[in-house]
Amino acid sequence: MIMIVYDDVISLIQRTGGITVLFNEIQSRLSRDNIEYTVSESPDVCNTMQLMKIFERYRSIPASRIPADISVFHSTYYRVPSNKVVPVVTTVHDFTYERVVGGVRKMVHSWQKGHAINSSDHIICVSESTREDLYHYYPNVIDSHVTVVPNGVSSVYHPIAGVMKKQQVLFVGSRASYKNFNNTVESLIAHKDISLACVGGGGFSNAEILYLEQCIPGRYTHLGYISEYQLNIEYNQSICLVYPSLYEGFGIPVLEAFASGCPVIAVDTSSIPEVAGGAAVLIKSGASSEISDAISALSCDKVRSDFRDKGFSQVSKFSWERTYQETLRVYEKFQ
């Protein structure tokens, strides 16, 4: 019988997010199938400086906290046992820090990730794009020790019959510079009857509010961190999801939007083409003029309906059940 040990370090880093969802979905199905697993708790942490100290001190989980009879250890975020007492599986989600982040944060994260990758018996990548990045940054990784296991999408996301539409576009997640938030704002200057609704990513900064007021005064709102149930409603009510990120390891909001019947505008880069297939309006660079033109195209009912149907077809290829089954096959290599 296979038995898996996880840590819970991801809970110290994010309260919600794709990685948290991934491991919750896997663990819930292990429980469903009566497959034994345990979660090794991590120390509490309160702020970024403490988190960096945690990574330094707890980059390795003590071997004494790993039961002797387990089949595999799978960290939720780039940790390994202090002694190589069990096989180690690591999931690589993206190379955002390596590509778009600088300074101390990049150094700490990249060291932590590299230590985990070089100590792992098997590596799971969430997309083919992420696997190619893995080979780029770690060319000595053995191909047979790498498996691509795509993320899934929650069944919460679905079309709602008769929902009242809003003249709004949706922006979900972080508004870091590589996410192209400012270009999204600029794209709406010409669309006087369309507003911008943002979800997650923290509240607007003073600089963001100043820019929003300069570009689209009174035509924006921040919905905060909302439930999946409420997010599904927002997807259903919106003209489209604008997701013009210049780099993604996967891009779960693309699938959430598709499942909800919401068309997507995204940049043709990194993992987006393989996740979106031909079902999104893919633009070249994420320039505000490109986003604006794409919004204009999707304002046509026929065009929006066509992309809506394509989205339903594409999202049917992904599910958390598929993610679970393919992850389980990786674990079984060490049974």
Automatic annotation (TrEMBL):
Glycosyl transferase family domain boundaries: 164-310
Keyword Transmembrane helix: no
Chain ranges of the Glycosyltransferase subfamily 4-like N-terminal domain: 69-153
Keyword field: Glycosyltransferase, Transferase
Superkingdom, natural source: Bacteria
EC number: 2.4.1.-
SUPFAM superfamilies: UDP-Glycosyltransferase/glycogen phosphorylase (SSF53756)
Keyword Transmembrane helix in annotation: no
A Gene Ontology biological process term: lipopolysaccharide biosynthetic process
Molecular function terms, GO-annotated: glycosyltransferase activity
A Pfam family annotated for this UniProt entry: Glyco_transf_4
Signal peptide feature range: none
Protein name per the record: Mannosyltransferase
